[in-house]
Amino acid sequence: MTGPSPGGLLGTCALVLIPSIVFNALVVPDVASKYSLAFTIVGAAWPLWCLGNLVAAGTTDPGIVRREPYRPPTEGRARARYREEVLPNGRSVTVKWNDTCNIYQPPRAHHCSVNDDCIDKFDHHCPWVGTTIGRRNYRTFLFFVFGTTILCVYVIAICAYQIKLKYDARPDTKRRAMQAVSDAPAALIIAILAFLGFWFVAVLSGFHIYLIITNQTTYENFRDGYSWRENPHNKGFVGNCWEVFCAPVPASRFNFRLPPSRQPPDRDVLVEEAKEQEKKAKRRAERAEREAKKEASDERRQKAEEEAEEAGKRGADVEMGDRRAQPAVDRSGGGAGGVMRALAGGAHSLEEIKVEVEESGYEGDRDRTPKARDESA
């Protein structure tokens, strides 16, 4: 679990441990004898605390996602390269299919090209620690960076104070300052090393404080650059700090006490399989529902066509019967025919004859009567 470059971890440990030993052996005793034994305790405990977090970060599983054997896409359909995942807060994110691990990467996961592993909540690969920084070792990495920053400030202050003690012990001469520095060469060298290291870890600490407040990883910041509002992982200032420093660290996906053949199933794979089964069942139910709706629609359409055809037949029979029952209207002879029918029907007055002619549908005879010609003239 030391990563592909354990030499980086050993080198960083030596870079912290050797100056700390010199510091506690040649610098701290003068200040502790002058004031308090607490300087000796802090000078010895604080570097050990930093080294402990460094070793923990370099030897802890960063959150490696287990690989799965290749499985062809189900139902003969091509597997989607990307898909949407819903976070616990209801926000949606896009996850990517990992061809190396044969899984959809968990949200915030990324495949580390150096470790050749997919790391959950991938932050970056740190050559100083010798491994990748992810969900499970990010907290100890931060403790190491923040602790080393404070350690550099403490070392610079104690070294400067030892030089001041040497300065006060010298007689008042023109070369008093140079003589004081020459009396504490270890303090000068350690202070210069701590000053150079401070700028590196201080800038790194400031950058990670920004990432903690905004709930981003180094990779996300370089790639996406989320703003405060659009970041789907943002939980507010308190929630973001709680997630980094106080939330329980998830268990490893591996049991390192067991051989590879007896490893327990990956919880993410189980959840993924359950989701796939749920999607398949949902698709089957939707397909059955669509087929049922289609069958019902076909039955309704067929029934409507049969009813329309039956109604058309009934309408045709009724129309034919009406035509047979309706007496034919004899329009032959025009107005004369209407007058003859009126006389045959027993009409005696002129008004009755006009009514009969109008009902016969003839209009021309009326216009050709002498009275009509006089009215038109």
Compact summary:
With 377 residues, the protein is mainly alpha-helical. It has three domains: 257 residues, no CATH class; 62 residues; 42 residues, no CATH class. The protein has 13 helices and seven strands.
What are the SSEs and their pairings?
Elements: H1 6-26, H2 28-34, H3 38-59, E1 82-86, E2 92-98, E3 103-104, E4 110-112, E5 117-119, E6 124-126, E7 131-133, H4 138-169, H5 176-183, H6 185-214, H7 218-223, H8 236-245, H9 267-325, H10 334-344, H11 350-359, H12 364-367, H13 370-376
Helix pairs in contact: 1-3, 1-6, 2-3, 3-4, 4-5, 4-6, 10-11
Question: Mind explaining what this structure looks like?
Answer:
This protein is mainly alpha-helical. The protein folds into three domains: 257 residues, no CATH class; 62 residues; 42 residues, no CATH class. Helices cover 60% and strands 7% of the residues. It has 13 helices and seven strands. A three-stranded antiparallel β-sheet has the order 1-2-3, with no helix packed on it. It has a two-stranded antiparallel sheet with strand order 4-5. Strand 1 and strand 2 form a beta hairpin. Helix 4 runs antiparallel to helix 6. It is elongated. The termini are far apart.
